[in-house]
Amino acid sequence: MLRALVDARRIVALAVAGAVGIWGLSAYPFIPDNAFLGLIDVRAPRVFALLRYGYATLWFSTPFLAASLMASLVAIVVYRRVPSAQFTALPPYPGPESRPAPTLVLGETHFEATPGRSPAPQWLTIPQRGLYTGIMVLGAVGTGKTSACMYPYVDQLLRWRSADPDRKIGGLVLEVKGDFCGQVRAMLQRAGREADYVEIGLDSGICYNPLHNDLDPYAVAYAIATLLNNLFGKSKEPFWQQAYTDLLKFVILLRRITDGYTTFSEVYRYVLEDGQIDRDIRRLKVELANPPTVVRIQKADHQAHCTQVPWRLWHVEDDDHVAHPYEADLEAFLAARHVAYVVQKAQGTAWTARRLQLEAVERWYVHGWSKLDARLRSSIVEGVVVFLSLFDDNPAVHRTFCPPRRAYTEEPAPGDPRPLESLTSLLERGQVLALNFPVGLNPGLARILGVMLKLDFQRAILQRIPQITAHPTRPWRDLLFVCDEYHAFATVGETDPTGDERTFALSRQARLMPIVATQSISSLRSALPGDESWRTLLQCFRTKIILATSDEFTARTAADLCGRRDRLKAHYSISESGRDAHISLLTGRPTAGKQSLSTSKSYAPHDEYIFPPRVFTQLQNAQAIALPYDGVNPLPPQFCYLKPHYLDVQRSYFEHLERGQI
Length: 662
Hints:
Helices cover about 45% and strands about 15% of the residues. With about 650 residues, it is of the alpha/beta class. The strands form five sheets. The protein has a nine-stranded mixed beta sheet with strand order 5-12-4-13-14-3-15-18-19, sandwiched between helices. Strands 8-9-7-10 form a four-stranded antiparallel beta sheet. β16 and β17 form a beta hairpin. It is elongated and about 150 Å long.
């Protein structure tokens, strides 16, 4: 109120002068019957008029000057005080259940490039189309990237349309600490979706075979060999990774064309005892010399009953039928489910694909593997079995991740885990799959299991693209990929056939919303092969949320990502000149009889960071600089104040800060 009066001090002074003048003229009017004034009026009428009007003017001007002087003194005092800003409350928080589309509230935003509280704060929201382009959270330990980003973001998306069986969001959750899965389960319970939670763990009652899929053996072998190099030390010599990949690829391929089903423990035994490789090759050569006996069924029956069974040697015989090499267990399986089948000799040449693959395995074994020096073979085997042995010597790991074939064909016995359904069916039902294998139990095993599950998930995601294209009018649910400590599961590279950037580049078309968090860019850089492969992965996430970091490389890279701007800056120069210059006899220094001093001021554009690197090292907890992308246009980089999941979302960040809650 006082500042408003001071700002209007001229109007106040005029009002005071008017009031005093009117009162003065009425209380002390000009006296025209004074003898001296009458004489002046007769002798000099103009002087008399000047005295009369001057007297009236002074009644107004004098109070105005006095009031202006007093108002100026008050203004000096008032302006020394910093005005207390009037802050408005945050707009009402949009509840996830009431949002028309899946959107994500990152936090509250005030000023874009200036820290501090704004009188009119807003919510920083990423629309649905922006979620498809990925979100990456970067932050050092203890900055709130999990509690203020991952937990609230996942909770918002899982609560959207939680009661709608056709639209609720499903997905995959990977983490290494062991507590995120419990939080996801609690989120689903609060949303009334506790039945949608599916967990893979040593005691979860579900078994998962990472090799029971249609992924190419080379892709599986390359992923394992790359992780082995990362886990046990990188080598400048590429021979070892090539040797590991070659050995694993052909062993997995042999097991698939032999039985159509294999596990890591079986691969471990074949690698240790290569005589089993020779025995299978000889047996298959006899079986495939002539067209084998096959079991022939309808394609529709295969789609309904045989997509998850452990027989993977199906081939197409004609437009309506598929066939599989005869096995008694398969015949019993089909008969138990009343599936019509025919046992006959294979028709056509589809079965010859197995024979060609067998010939490739035989060439590798006879002309490649067997001719290597025994000590070299031992070194290659030792490099592989150091990992594969984990699936053989640990009963809990073997039971969960190396289930026998009968686990997919028979009802599980009491106490035995049931096999994981196909990821495609789980995701299309809106279920949330979580891998709960904390890295503390075994870092190498946790990482390889996470990577293999991620590869199956990515394969299921990519298979959605042609289906969505073929049925554009059908309502397709959105899917979520969440990974905390992402550097532990990241795979990327120009030669890696299973790189994450290949999936994330197509995530928009597959309706995938990836949200990952890692401690720093240096963490990704050290976990990925090559010096620049991290850039390929970083550019796949269009929205980036950068919390405080203690890594200089991350701070510098983040400053470059935020960009630069040109600003006009003043430049000053001072020059001194003199005339009649000479050397002083007293001081021995140059001097001049006449001197002049000149200064100049100029303006020039200056290129500077929008957010310098030091800003990223000085952020407080739950403060971030966001580079948002709405799916169409990139939004300007700006300060974002996050909302930890344990605090009131409607209360401002600065109010929490004043109360010591952050």
